[in-house]
Amino acid sequence: ENARKKGIIIITAAGNFGKNIDNISSAYYPASYNLNNIISVINIDKYGILHPTSNWGVKSADIATYGTDVTSYLPNNSLGTLSGTSQSTAIISGYTSLLVGSSIKKTNFIKLKNTILKSVKKSISLTDKCKTGGFFDPVRFKNIIKRKFRKIANK
What we know:
This protein has helices at residues 2-5, 85-102, 109-118, 138-153; strands at 10-13, 38-44, 63-66, 70-74, 78-82, 120-122, 134-136. It is of the alpha/beta class. It has a three-stranded parallel beta sheet, covered by helices on one side. The longest helix is centred in the middle third of the chain and has 18 residues, at 85-102. It is globular and about 40 Å long. It starts with a helix and ends with a helix.
């Protein structure tokens, strides 16, 4: 709530217990807070299917993106793969930071969240798993940003 009052957006992992976080008994915080400055992210595989360990919830989870078998740095200076909503969250955080960095003026968290959520490609397998019913699509994101910059350039 304090972050929201200060205009801060929070991108958070939905968790990795394979549970519906809309249920009070399996809520996962901060993803389960009903606040408009939170983007809660679930994990899908390269085929767009919810990973079996990913939490989900049509009320609490906002968006899905890839988070399965993500190449990552591991201890002892090695590379390996990791899977989970934290990997998915990193992707959404990166694209959100591109939005923040590309703005001439400070963008409020509602506009940031709406831009990310509009960048979704709908998926039948996700209709009952997250609010958007789909997964983040970088091409849609790019097209939204291109339109935004055209509007700025034409002013």
